[in-house]
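**User:** My hope is that you can spare some time for a protein that puzzles me. As I understand it, each token names a local backbone shape. I would be glad if you read both lines and explained how they fit together. The protein I mean follows directly.
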Amino acid sequence: QVQLVESGGGLVQAGGSLRLSCVVSGDTFRIHAMGWHRQAPGKQREFVARILSEGGTNYADSVKGRFTISRDNAKNTVYLQMSSLKPEDTAVYYCAADRQVWGQGTLVTVSS
């Protein structure tokens, strides 16, 4: 079984940066893809980025060039580096393992 714990959310001004972390524990060898998703108030959860076990990455068009997903296998941690943040990036950000196991979420608020 896999458990995920996110951290790193907070309040930031537009144009600023934040780095989210997701610590992964349990049967990590079974995981094919780790992803970040977000849910803004009144909206459906949406895909943000993912990193595959072999290292490939994918991004939503809305965050390409601004967000970077990475991982540190020694620390069992997946990161989401967010730069040039916009008010529309405000959301609860969730870490997910193969879209089957989800973390509790961390709130990111970007002020204008």
